[in-house]
Amino acid sequence: MELIKLIIISIVEGLSEFLPISSTGHMIIISDLLQLESTHFLKLFLIVIQVGAIMAVVVLYRKRLLNTVRLENIKPGQVGFNFWLKIFIAIIPAGIIGVLFDDIIEEHFMNSITVACALVIGGIFMIITENKFRNHAQVNDVDDITFKQAFIVGIFQCLAILFPGFSRSAASIIGGWIMGFSTVVAAEFSFFLAIPTMLLGSAYKLLKYQETITSLQYFYIFIGLLVAFVIAYIVIEKFMNFLQKKPMRIFALYRFVVGFFLLIMFLC
After folding, report:
1. 38 Ramachandran zone, left/alpha/beta (phi>0; psi -120 to 50)
2. 110 versus 140: which is more confidently predicted?
3. CA distance 152 to 167
4. Is the pLDDT reported for residue 268 higher than 80?
5. What is the 3-state secondary structure (H, E, C) of the chain?
6. What digits encode the pLDDT tens for the residues 214-258?
7. Positive or negative, the Cα torsion across 163, 169, 172, 176?
């Protein structure tokens, strides 16, 4: 029964990781609805299975990523070197916030009420920034992002670290819009930014809880990674096609519906 519940959570992760609706928030909601106990294993599981979804990005964008690590491109000043330096600069704020406040966030913010509030507030931010900045894009290629812009987007990503339910994808896309990115560039940079962010976050959680995790629970994590990868692989391409044609306010409206429903359900 526990494995079935964890597979359900993994499906939710794959569906929501790259959508601006918060995969972590949805996994917390589903965990509460499935009445899963908030153990060290569950806290680890909710973070680590996101790596499965991130690997879908690596596979789908493998040609572009491989090009950035070619010998001729990885030298200082070259496109590959600059690409990864921007990613490194962008993850610094989240890394600092994550290490300093991880225990506080786990204890006080990993619950459905916080998620509901973050969903609503994040939805408001999405509508305001999309209306104001989406049609004024100046950056139409990830390679044109400056180091300063990358760092500021990284600061926006901290909103998702501090407030589960805000959405890492939404936070970085909002930051990208404000920095003048097109929606597609903002989404792509968010995808690439997720690779080291989630890998390092998962490594930190594994080191933190490794002594309390059993062999069977590691098997559950493997299954979760596989399920999240397959679902995310299907979702990413469809999401990018959607962004090229439609505004993102539909996701904001979804956030409002879910957020207000949760507040009514848990507070009334």
Report:
1. beta
2. 140
3. 16
4. no
5. CHHHHHHHHHHHHHHHCCCCCCHHHHHHHHHHHCCCCCCHHHHHHHHHCHHHHHHHHHHHCHHHHHHHCCCCCCCCCCHHHHHHHHHHHHHHHHHHHHHHHHHHHHHHCCCHHHHHHHHHHHHHHHHHHHHHHHHHCCECCHHHCCHHHHHHHHHHHHHHHHCCCCCHHHHHHHHHHHCCECHHHHHHHHHHHHHHHHHHHHHHHHHHHHHHCCHHHHHHHHHHHHHHHHHHHHHHHHHHHHHCCCCCHHHHHHHHHHHHHHHHHHHC
6. 999 999 999 999 999 999 999 998 998 888 888 889 999 999 999
7. negative
Question: How many structural domains are present in the chain?
Answer: 1
d(CA 206, CA 198): 12
Euclidean distance between CA atoms 108 and 233, whole angstroms: 32
- Pair of tokens at residue 119: 């969903």
In tens, the pLDDT along 31-56 reads: 988 988 878 899 889 999 999 999 99
Its domain, for residue 152, covers 2-267
Q: pLDDT tens across 111-141, in order?
A: 889 999 999 999 999 999 999 998 888 999 9
pTM for this prediction: 0.90
Nearest to 242 by CA among 5, 13, 21: 21
Amino acid 108: pLDDT: 84
Sign of the Cα torsion 178, 181, 187, 191 reads: negative
Radius of gyration of the chain (CA): 18
